[in-house]
Write a structure and sequence with these properties.
single chain; alpha+beta; 1 helix; 5 strands
Length: 77
């Protein structure tokens, strides 16, 4: 098992999970990150609210960026 770190940046604020999460491989960490992103997008869409851009970065224990997911919700009217 390897340790992966999830970093969420939203509206200029960063949330880091400094303890990290254990996954058997990078693909398992990517799938977990994709699920987190899907949950976040569902929340934004359900609220029908504009959200500044947010992103979720996944790094390994050496702080190497492995994956980045990003999302923007905007209303024009």
């Amino acid at each position: 098992m390897s340790q992966y770190f999830f970093h969420i940046l939203q509206d200029g604020h960063s949330t880091d999970y400094s303890e990290g999460l254990q996954f058997p491989d990078k693909e398992a960490a990517r799938k977990e990150a994709a699920g987190i992103c899907a949950d976040m997008m569902r929340g934004v869409i359900a609220e029908s609210a504009d959200q500044p851009e947010w992103r979720l970065d996944v790094t390994d224990a050496a702080e190497k960026l492995l994956f980045r997911f990003s999302f923007v919700a905007e209303t024009f009217e």
